[in-house]
Amino acid sequence: MGRPPCCEKGGVKKGPWTPEEDLVLVSYVQDHGPGNWRAVPTSTGLMRCSKSCRLRWTNYLRPGIKRGNFSDQEEKLIIHLQALLGNRWAAIASYMPERTDNDIKNYWNTHLKKKFTKTGGGGGAEAKSGRCAAPKGQWERRLQTDIHTARQALREALSLDPDPVPPSAKPEQVPQQPPAPAATQAAGQATYASSAENIARLLEGWMHPGGGSGAAGKVSSGSRSSASSVSAFSGDEGASASNSGTAVRMPERPTRTSKAVDDAGTAGPGPSFSMLESWLLDDGVGHGDTGLVSVPLGDPCEFF
DNA sequence: AATTGTACCAACCGCACCTTC
DNA sequence: AGAAGGTGCGGTTGGTACAAT
């Protein structure tokens, strides 16, 4: 079709986001909810293109994001899912609700990829392009396959876990509505703060430079400048369960992937590890015949 | 102390798909 | 039915901090 660039012509700011811009964006989302990104620049006066706003929100400002410090379990999960799904980071991220696809992608490219290529593993299914050329109209089927293969990946990943959740802990049913990420943190280790708190801290750091976050100087330089980025938000233990009062609604990620996931009965931003585990365990016990083909640990694209 | 190399991550870019008209 | 607009995804790049020399 030859679409024109979304950020047409001049007047569009690029580069790192400032705390001020973050605030504007967050307030907008608080008022209107995520979505309708096209309207964001005009409504807020932000000199950013809609795409940039969406990206900033989903990768950085969105509530429930955990940054840095991938656990062994997460790492295993990524490795398995990547091997099965290929470079479909959004699909992988849908099984790790507190991680963004960008984060996972970066982690893969910087940590796991080398590790894997060194050990001769990896590559996985259609790792090349990340997109297998599934004909149009078979999208859902492909996604169903994704779900199935992801379950297998989870089984493997969790079976590798030295300290798995006892089966007795699993709920009876496949969750219709997976808990919001913050709510799943009750188990308490590495928790992440709610968005409201995130923004509050951002504000603190911004309005009182020299204070903890120091976000004023520079927002976008990663975890290395640990205190200087919004990623400092993640460190608040005990913030977990207090999310209910936040004005920022928990985002659903209406991606193509999650749509199919919805169809399969797991709606929303995605389950936590324990929920995922119960989900796959239930599947193992109960309905193996969900209409999904049994997928060997090979190339999911072979089904198309 | 200065320079060079490496690692990391936020953000951009272009394409593909979906939705609306 | 098809065009146009909107959104999502994956690959890539650029900037910064740290490590090594």
From TrEMBL:
<dbReference type="Pfam" id="PF00249">
    <property type="entry name" value="Myb_DNA-binding"/>
</dbReference>
<feature type="region of interest" description="Disordered">
    <location>
        <begin position="116"/>
        <end position="138"/>
    </location>
</feature>
<dbReference type="InterPro" id="IPR009057">
    <property type="entry name" value="Homeodomain-like_sf"/>
</dbReference>
<dbReference type="GO" id="GO:0003700">
    <property type="term" value="F:DNA-binding transcription factor activity"/>
</dbReference>
<feature type="domain" description="Myb-like">
    <location>
        <begin position="62"/>
        <end position="112"/>
    </location>
</feature>
<dbReference type="InterPro" id="IPR015495">
    <property type="entry name" value="Myb_TF_plants"/>
</dbReference>
<keyword id="KW-0804">Transcription</keyword>
<feature type="compositionally biased region" description="Basic and acidic residues">
    <location>
        <begin position="250"/>
        <end position="262"/>
    </location>
</feature>
<feature type="domain" description="Myb-like">
    <location>
        <begin position="9"/>
        <end position="61"/>
    </location>
</feature>
<feature type="region of interest" description="Disordered">
    <location>
        <begin position="159"/>
        <end position="192"/>
    </location>
</feature>
<keyword id="KW-0238">DNA-binding</keyword>
<dbReference type="GO" id="GO:0000976">
    <property type="term" value="F:transcription cis-regulatory region binding"/>
</dbReference>
<keyword id="KW-0805">Transcription regulation</keyword>
<dbReference type="InterPro" id="IPR017930">
    <property type="entry name" value="Myb_dom"/>
</dbReference>
<feature type="region of interest" description="Disordered">
    <location>
        <begin position="212"/>
        <end position="270"/>
    </location>
</feature>
<feature type="domain" description="HTH myb-type">
    <location>
        <begin position="62"/>
        <end position="116"/>
    </location>
</feature>
<protein>
    <submittedName>
        <fullName>Uncharacterized protein</fullName>
    </submittedName>
</protein>
<feature type="domain" description="HTH myb-type">
    <location>
        <begin position="9"/>
        <end position="61"/>
    </location>
</feature>
<keyword id="KW-0677">Repeat</keyword>
<feature type="compositionally biased region" description="Low complexity">
    <location>
        <begin position="182"/>
        <end position="192"/>
    </location>
</feature>
<dbReference type="GO" id="GO:0005634">
    <property type="term" value="C:nucleus"/>
</dbReference>
<feature type="compositionally biased region" description="Low complexity">
    <location>
        <begin position="216"/>
        <end position="235"/>
    </location>
</feature>
<dbReference type="InterPro" id="IPR001005">
    <property type="entry name" value="SANT/Myb"/>
</dbReference>
<keyword id="KW-0539">Nucleus</keyword>
<dbReference type="GO" id="GO:1901141">
    <property type="term" value="P:regulation of lignin biosynthetic process"/>
</dbReference>
